[in-house]
């Protein structure tokens, strides 16, 4: 079997999808993350790392235009803030629970 004359072509499975196809995905992720304003109910949702993976896939799989790349970067920042807020809330809840347990033990 002979190789093709043009060995520099990117295999079809590695080509990026066009930017216009990313728009729908971007809008979906922006809508989902806009609803993540309350970290106290975030435990009912998929974990932030799942959404981080979805945003990263956009950057990897689509040939984004500059404005879309900026939106992806903004989504990544929002996810980082959400993750930080969830960690803080989790830490505060752990401290509060420890305090309640020690009060019960003292009683």
UniProtKB/TrEMBL annotation:
It comes from the Bacteria. This is Uncharacterized protein. It comes from Caballeronia cordobensis (Burkholderia cordobensis).
């Amino acid at each position: 079997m002979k190789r093709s004359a043009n060995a520099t072509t990117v295999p079809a499975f590695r080509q990026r999808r066009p930017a216009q196809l990313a728009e729908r995905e971007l809008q979906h992720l922006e809508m989902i993350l806009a609803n993540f304003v309350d970290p106290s109910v975030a435990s009912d949702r998929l974990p932030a790392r799942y959404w981080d993976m979805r945003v990263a896939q956009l950057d990897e799989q689509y040939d984004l235009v500059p404005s879309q790349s900026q939106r992806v970067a903004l989504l990544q920042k929002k996810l980082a803030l959400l993750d930080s807020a969830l960690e803080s809330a989790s830490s505060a809840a752990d401290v509060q629970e420890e305090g309640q347990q020690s009060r019960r033990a003292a009683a």
